């Protein structure tokens, strides 16, 4: 029996009934296979190319037999430039893919690159938002360069979501109102992970791509299982209240206005800002308006809590949203929340060291960042080497704990705000020190610079 192994992150990972409605697409792939093929799903939460390579890939390679398939569905976590343990720069990302491909082929198995699925996010104009950045493109490049089979799941799911549209797409994700599911009494807004219907629909897309691939052996997929397309929910508005404008203009009101906890008044937010808060006793629905137009609504649970996110991204600029509760005896008074959406952020200002200046072996970087920026990430040679928190006054500073070798370097600095980051600010740095080959260096060459427990960045090939 040949194996189809899945290496991926939480979007593909298998889920237990206790985790429902969360589901990974990998747990449904076996439904589409012909006999004598089995799925082994090794996808896990927060997995990256680097962590799987160092922790588990050798074990997988030992299990492979000629003719097996390995589906590599990574690239959804590695884009997190705000997280040093997860981020992979473009060069590092591609280099790891090359290593996976070489290792799998050496065992006589077939590597298959699977681009990350699109998220349930739509632009203000109603188009599917690109939230994966350059990583799907990097996988396509590696597939073309190495002649590796490709399942372009990013493209397939983008087309699928565009066909569904904003009002239906969320029904395939773990996106629930407060009180809608006992496992998520306060609701959950998860635009990345699928529910069972979504996971099965995406597994079907993967099965179709495997069946149609000219780079893989035939006979993997039972075509009869592909004959029936998944049913789509009807096109409904996101909201269940008829004539919602009544709630905005009614002169008769009862109870207390809903309280908004997030966003805070005047807060700078990203385009996918979630709202949350409380409502008074008896209020069972909360509605949202801007400039007299109805934006959406959400249920209120028995404890009076609610959360909501607009399916369409907020356009950049200032917003004033009115919030009103729906009550069996009528509607509540209005509350309002003002906030500002930012869809881009400026690079940080680097104050030290100055451009082209000489620095000691451990340069100290410092500067300022725009309002709302929480971190400044430091990269050298395309590798993330440090993270600097931004203080309340907008300043930041960081010293890397490893000595730098003498030479001239280009260092990049990136501002992080919400789920977006800036283009890099660049600095040319000259490091002063003992040259390579000097006796002072050679005299200590018998000893390693750091222990095996070193947590300093960047990853250099060990653990």
UniProtKB/TrEMBL annotation:
InterPro entries: Ig-like_fold (IPR013783), RhgT-like (IPR037459), SGNH_hydro_sf (IPR036514). The keyword Cytoplasm does not apply. Keywords: Hydrolase. The keyword Hydrolase applies. GO terms for biological process: carbohydrate metabolic process. It comes from the Bacteria. GO terms for molecular function: hydrolase activity. Belongs to the 'GDSL' lipolytic enzyme family. This is SGNH hydrolase-type esterase domain-containing protein. The lineage of its organism: Bacteria, Bacillati, Actinomycetota, Actinomycetes, Kitasatosporales.
């Amino acid at each position: 029996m040949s194996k189809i192994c899945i290496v991926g992150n939480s979007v593909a990972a298998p889920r237990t009934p206790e985790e429902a409605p969360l589901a990974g697409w990998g747990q449904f792939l076996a439904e589409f296979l012909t006999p004598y093929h089995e799925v082994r799903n090794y996808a896990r939460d927060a997995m990256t190319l680097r962590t799987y390579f160092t922790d588990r890939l050798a074990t997988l390679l030992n299990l492979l037999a000629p003719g097996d398939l390995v589906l590599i569905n990574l690239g959804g976590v590695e884009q997190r430039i705000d997280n040093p343990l997860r981020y992979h720069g473009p060069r590092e990302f591609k280099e790891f893919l090359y290593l996976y491909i070489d290792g799998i082929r050496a065992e006589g198995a077939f590597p298959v690159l699977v681009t990350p699925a699109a998220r349930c996010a739509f632009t203000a104009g109603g188009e599917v938002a690109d939230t994966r950045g350059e990583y799907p493109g990097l996988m396509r490049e590696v597939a073309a360069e190495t002649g590796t089979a490709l399942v372009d799941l990013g493209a397939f799911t983008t087309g699928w979501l565009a066909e569904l549209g904003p009002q239906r797409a969320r029904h395939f994700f773990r996106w629930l109102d407060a009180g809608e599911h006992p496992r998520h009494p306060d609701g959950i807004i998860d635009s990345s992970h699928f529910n069972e219907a979504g996971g099965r629909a995406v597994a079907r897309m993967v099965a179709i791509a495997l069946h149609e691939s000219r780079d893989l052996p035939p006979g993997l997929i039972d075509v009869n299982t592909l004959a029936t397309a998944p049913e789509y929910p009807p096109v409904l508005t996101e909201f269940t209240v008829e004539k919602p404008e009544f709630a905005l203009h009614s002169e008769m009101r009862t109870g207390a206005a809903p309280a908004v906890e997030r966003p805070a008044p005047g807060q700078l937010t990203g385009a996918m800002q979630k709202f949350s808060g409380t409502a008074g006793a008896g209020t069972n629905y909360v509605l949202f308006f801007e400039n007299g137009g109805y934006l959406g609504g959400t249920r209120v649970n028995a404890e009076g809590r609610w959360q909501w996110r607009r399916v369409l991204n907020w356009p950049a600029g200032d917003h004033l949203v009115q919030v009103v509760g729906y009550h069996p005896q009528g509607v509540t008074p209005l509350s309002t929340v003002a906030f500002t959406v930012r869809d881009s952020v400026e690079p940080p200002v680097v104050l030290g060291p100055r451009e082209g200046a000489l620095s000691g072996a451990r340069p100290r970087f410092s500067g300022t960042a725009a309002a709302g920026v929480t971190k400044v990430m430091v990269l050298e040679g395309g590798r993330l080497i440090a993270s600097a928190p931004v203080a309340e006054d907008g300043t930041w500073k960081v010293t890397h704990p490893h000595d730098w070798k003498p030479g001239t370097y280009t260092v990049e600095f990136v501002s992080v705000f919400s789920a977006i980051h800036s283009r890099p600010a660049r600095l040319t740095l000259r490091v002063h020190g003992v040259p390579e080959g000097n006796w002072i260096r050679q005299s200590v060459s018998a000893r390693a610079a750091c222990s095996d427990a070193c947590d300093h960045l960047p990853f250099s090939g060990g653990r």
